């Protein structure tokens, strides 16, 4: 979803909800490469269907929270309406073969606000699953949309969606390290060399995500930085699959796995292995 996907889904989906999270880029009104029209048609159909489904389930999910009936709930519903309007507009212009990059950017910008909320407010269940599916399609849309590249740097676009994805991973890595430490303290591994080893894995992973975020923000990212994040994460993932810690640690890792799979797909054009 995203010019400043602050994440998609691909960006936070999360800063006070009412505050702007998108810093629009100056995008030229250039036509999209016509070879992408077929892909966009399929994407827009899926996005439209999944948006309808997401709006239904998030409405139900919000009704079960303390946000029910609040102005913040109204804000979220407005974000979703704005997102729907932007996708409808993109679809209409697509049907007339008038799509320009600014139309795509508007869709991604609108989605970024929703993404930020979803990252900060854990609604769980169907709402998060629907958003994850929708976010994947938005990540793909963002890859098709024209972007800017850094001469001599990584060949892929430095765009809001990828930036949000990187920021999400960095933030969630910090959260996971804390919840993992607490979970290990409640197991027989507490105080053991094995616990020290796992904590070192988490520390290395956190350092790699911090480095990736800093280098990305400075437009210095290389695929080696991304690979270091993924390599560090593989070690943790192996442990998490073998040792069921439950609770917050597993929930935090599941969130990270989703974004790591997207990161691997964006940079290496392959299915994520998490």
Radius of gyration: 19 Å
- Helix share, percent: 55-70%
- What oligomerization state is this entry in? single chain
Distance between the termini: 22 Å
Number of domains: 2
Give a topology summary.
Layout: H1 37-62, H2 71-95, H3 101-120, H4 125-144, H5 160-184, H6 193-217, H7 223-242, H8 247-268
In short:
The chain has 274 residues and is mostly helical.
How would you describe this protein?
It contains 8 helices and no strands. The protein has helices at 37-62, 71-95, 101-120, 125-144, 160-184, 193-217, 223-242, 247-268. Helix 3 runs antiparallel to helix 4 and helix 6 packs antiparallel against helix 7 (223-242). The longest helix is centred in the N-terminal third of the chain and has 26 residues, at 37-62.
Which features characterize this protein?
mainly alpha; de novo design (two linked rop proteins); 8 helices
